[in-house]
Amino acid sequence: MFTPQSHRPQPVRAWTKLTRLCQGATLGAGLCLSLSLAAQTSQGPSASTEPSPASIVFQILASELALQQGEQGVALATYLSLAQRTNDAAVAERACRLALNGRAPRQALDAGLIWLKAKPESAEAQDTVDSLQMLLGFHNDLQQSLLARRAKAKEAGEPDLVAFYDRLAALSSRGPDPAKAVALLEAVALEHSVRPELLYTRAMLYERAQNFSEMERLLRSLIAKEPKHAHALNALGYSFADRNQRLPEAKVLIEQALRLLPNDPHILDSMGWVYFRKGMPKDALPFLYSAYERQPDAEISAHLGEVLWQLSRADEALAVFRLGLSHDPQNTVLRETLSRLGIAQKAVLSDPLSEALDPSDPP
After folding, report:
1. Contacts of 95 (CB under 8 A, 6+ apart)
2. DSSP string of 57-71?
3. Element (DSSP H or E) covering residue 77
4. Whole-number pLDDT of residue 221
5. Given this model, what pLDDT does residue 286 score?
6. pLDDT of residue 320
7. Gap between the Cα atoms of 84 and 142, Å rounded
8. What is the mean pLDDT for each group of 10 consecutive residues in the chain (363 residues)?
9. What is the pLDDT of residue 4?
10. pTM as predicted
11. What distance in Å separates the CA atoms of residue 99 and residue 282, rounded to the nearest whole number?
């Protein structure tokens, strides 16, 4: 399988990174926020259009009480309005968290922009705004912001530029539209788009867009620059194996990657998958079990489960599928595997097996 940055984004999982911001919201947090902001506001005279300290306290406490009663929309509207009137970073952050938790990305972006303007040094605010602009398709605004930051990083020196491109690669990989994500990456990277850390990301975006010829060209270019780039070797080999093409070359590439990173679960999974594609399911099992033991995620579960199913070990296969679904019920690879094998997802989840497969105890 491909390494994590190349996984296809799932419709629900597009929110995963963003909604981590929303954990731990409590009435106590709202009370602390209201008192803090009221104290700041009361330190000096305010314009007549600005809310008074007492009004701020009342609105925040009312919002938190509404939230406790399940009226999240009311709480969000109040917090967002207050953020727009005060331009306070803490209020805007709270509004952004509530919007993300309520799956309201446009309101989250409005609040996030206020948060970032009030606290431009906040990496969390910047990452949130970047991710939301990518998700919502505000590519021009995002590109201009990234170009400005790239110029600053380039002026600061190579370490800052490397860090910037690492963040750019991660952001591009999260984009819901791979074609637009690769266009953004290439526009921002400019003459540096052939840097190894960007070549791999570009290749994986082209894979997601099903432009396999361009993916192969970029990966071969990367391997020529860095012959020991294990993830590039694995990605090219796995791409061939997954499409059931050029299996001898796929096996050679994955073997090279495995020699470099013998315990990597993604490469172990690829090795098992190429054996399965070559019609050797029993030879595939040790590699797939080893990958599963290290990382029993949905995609590895899909591969191991399919091999077990083909070997008529249905109970074990269903247990593996069930564990994969528990980790990620929307995973495309796992859902496609179940559909292709004629297994209903509901049946997998309701199957009354007495014991689940222990991934640490392969046959």
Report:
1. 76, 79, 80, 82, 83, 107, 111, 114
2. HHHHHHHHHHHHTT-
3. helix 72-86
4. 95
5. 97
6. 95
7. 21
8. 53 44 45 51 52 77 84 90 92 94 95 97 95 93 95 92 91 88 89 85 92 96 96 97 96 98 97 97 97 95 96 94 91 93 82 44 48
9. 63
10. 0.74
11. 49
Distance CA 349, CA 278 (A): 31
207 CB-contact burial (10 Å; exposed 0-12 / middle 13-18 / buried 19+): buried
User: Are 3 and 230 in contact, with CB atoms under 8 Å apart?
Assistant: no
Quote the Cα angle for 217-223-228, to 5°. Answer: 160
Q: What is the dihedral of CA 269, 170, 219, 230, to 10 degrees?
A: -50
Separation CA 138–CA 316 (nearest Å): 46
Whole-angstrom CA distances from 24 to 97, 111, 289 are 10, 19, 37
pLDDT value, residue 60: 85
Tokens of 22: 């929303």
Q: Return the DSSP state at 343.
A: -
Note whether 153 and 177 are within 8 A (CB). Answer: no
Asked if 226 contacts 196 with a C-beta cutoff of 8 angstroms, the reply is: yes
Exposed/middle/buried for residue 98 (C-beta within 10 Å: 0-12, 13-18, 19+): buried
**Contact of 184 with 175, CB cutoff 8 Å:** yes
Neighbours of 110 (CB within 10 A): 19
